[in-house]
Design a protein that fits this description.
Blueprint: H1 5-17, H2 20-27, H3 31-45, E1 50-51, E2 58-59, H4 61-72, H5 77-89, E3 92-99, H6 101-118, E4 121-128, H7 131-139, E5 145-148, E6 157-165, E7 168-172, H8 185-188, E8 193-195, H9 201-212, E9 219-222, H10 226-234, E10 240-242, H11 244-248, E11 255-259, E12 266-273, H12 274-277, H13 280-291
Parallel strand pairs: 3-4, 3-5, 8-9
Antiparallel strand pairs: 1-2, 5-12, 6-12, 7-10, 7-11
Helix pairs in contact: 1-2, 1-3, 1-4, 2-3, 4-5, 6-13
C-alpha cells in the first residue's frame, strides 16, 4: 500500500471539515484536488472513507480510525501505512455500536469481545439505549451501527437480519410450571409477570401476542435488562419471558427455562448506512453476531 504525506494532509483537512470545499478553501487549493486525493486514498485502501449518500459527506468508521492512526503516528509514514492496511482489512480501528439493553450484555457484548480478542488493534465501543435513541445516534453520525429490532424507514440506512430469537419462559425452580415441558402464554400469565419497559420492542411483541389471544396479565415490576428480569424471577417476584442467551448466563442457579408454545419471535437486526455496512470491520462484526 502506497500513501504519501500529501495525501494524509489533504485527507485530514477533509476529515476535520467534513467537506471537500471547506478543506480546499482552508488549504487554498481547488476542490477537485481534494476530491481526487480522497478518491485515490479510498482506491488504495479498498474501502470508503466518506459516506456520500444524498448530500452527505460524513466520515465513516474507517475514516475515524485512520485519522486516529495518523494522529498517533504522524511522524512515521510506515506506521500509518501499516495502520491503514489493518483498517482496510477490518482488523484495526474503532467501531461505535449502539444497542438495545435487552441484547447489549449478551449477543452484542459477546460478539464484540470475541472480535477484539482475535484482533488486538480493534476496538468496539457499545452504548446502550432504546430503539428510538439508537436511530437518532445513527442519523446524527454519533454511532456507526445499531443493533435493534426494526428496520428504519430512512432510505439512507440498510438493515441485515442477524437472527430470530425464540424467547423462553423464565421460572423460579419451585414454580409449578417448572415441571412442564412447554409453557403457554395463558399458563404464564396466571401469575404476575416481570417485564421489560413499555418502550421495548420485545415487550411490545409479547403484549401483542397476549392481546391476540385475549390473555389478561398483571405486571409485578419492570426492568430495563433481561438479566434483571432473571434475578427477579429467581427471587420469586414473578415470571418472565427472556431470550435463551440471557437464560444461559444463569445456568446452575434457581432459574428454570421452558420453551414457549406459540409463534412469539424477536427479530434482531443490525442497521447502518450502506457505506458503513460495506466496511470490512462491519462485515466482521455482522459475522460475529450471527455466529455468537
Amino acid at each position: 500500500m502506497r500513501i504519501t504525506a500529501r495525501q494524509i494532509e489533504l485527507f485530514q483537512m477533509a476529515y476535520r471539515h467534513k467537506s471537500t470545499r471547506k478543506a480546499a478553501d482552508a488549504l487554498h487549493i481547488s476542490q477537485p484536488a481534494i476530491s481526487r486525493v480522497v478518491a485515490e486514498l479510498e482506491a488504495e485502501m479498498g474501502i470508503k472513507l466518506f459516506d456520500r449518500s444524498g448530500r452527505r459527506f460524513e466520515p465513516t468508521a474507517a475514516a475515524h480510525s485512520f485519522s486516529t492512526a495518523i494522529s498517533s503516528h504522524y511522524y512515521g509514514i510506515d506506521r500509518i501505512v501499516e495502520a491503514a492496511t489493518m483498517i482496510a482489512s477490518g482488523t484495526a480501528g474503532v467501531l461505535h455500536v449502539v444497542a438495545l439493553p435487552a441484547v447489549a450484555d449478551t449477543l452484542v457484548a459477546k460478539a464484540a469481545a470475541n472480535l477484539m480478542a482475535r484482533h488486538s488493534k480493534l476496538r468496539i465501543d457499545i452504548d446502550v439505549m432504546g430503539e428510538r435513541k439508537c436511530l437518532a445516534m445513527l442519523r446524527s453520525g454519533n454511532a456507526d451501527c445499531a443493533v435493534i429490532c426494526t428496520s428504519p424507514r430512512d432510505t439512507g440506512f440498510v438493515s441485515t437480519l442477524i437472527r430470530e430469537i425464540r424467547p423462553v419462559a423464565a421460572l423460579s425452580s419451585d414454580d409449578p410450571l417448572a415441571a412442564e415441558t412447554e409453557v403457554s402464554l395463558s399458563q404464564l400469565a396466571e401469575k404476575d409477570l416481570v417485564m421489560l419497559p413499555p418502550d421495548s420492542p420485545f415487550r411490545r411483541a409479547l403484549e401483542l401476542e397476549l392481546a391476540k389471544s385475549r390473555i389478561p396479565f398483571s405486571v409485578r415490576a419492570e426492568a430495563r435488562t433481561q438479566t434483571a428480569l432473571a434475578e427477579y424471577v429467581i427471587s420469586g417476584i414473578g415470571r418472565a419471558v427472556i431470550d435463551p442467551l440471557t437464560g444461559g448466563l444463569f445456568a446452575g442457579t434457581a432459574l428454570t427455562l421452558r420453551p414457549l408454545k406459540g409463534r412469539l419471535i424477536w427479530p434482531i437486526k443490525i442497521v447502518a448506512s450502506e457505506t458503513t455496512m460495506d466496511l470490512p470491520v462491519t462485515r466482521l462484526f455482522v459475522d460475529a453476531l450471527k455466529s455468537g
